[in-house]
Specification:
Order of helices and strands: HHH
Shape: elongated
Number of helices: 3
Distance between the termini: 38 Å
Structural class: mainly alpha
Number of domains: 1
Largest sheet: none
Helix content: over 70%
């Protein structure tokens, strides 16, 4: 399970196309020993990740709602 291990999360992303939860990515950032410059850069990238993750959830929700409302093929 990737919850707090970035290497495992990367492996799962490559093999299963599963994005790690932003909460777990945040926890990975907190547990990392980064220089102030790296921490600032990673925080900026994390904010981009949050926006993209939220957008992907909205799109997926719209698709799933429409699919759940439609009839299935026989």
């Amino acid at each position: 399970m990737y919850h707090y291990d970035a290497a495992s999360a990367l492996e799962e992303l490559s093999s299963e196309a599963v994005l790690p939860s932003p909460v777990h990515v945040r926890d990975m950032l907190i547990r990392s020993a980064l220089s102030p410059e790296e921490a600032l850069d990673m925080n900026r990238r994390f904010q981009e990740y949050l926006r993209a993750f939220g957008s992907a959830q909205e799109i997926a929700r719209e698709i799933l709602v429409r699919l759940s409302e439609s009839d299935r093929k026989p």
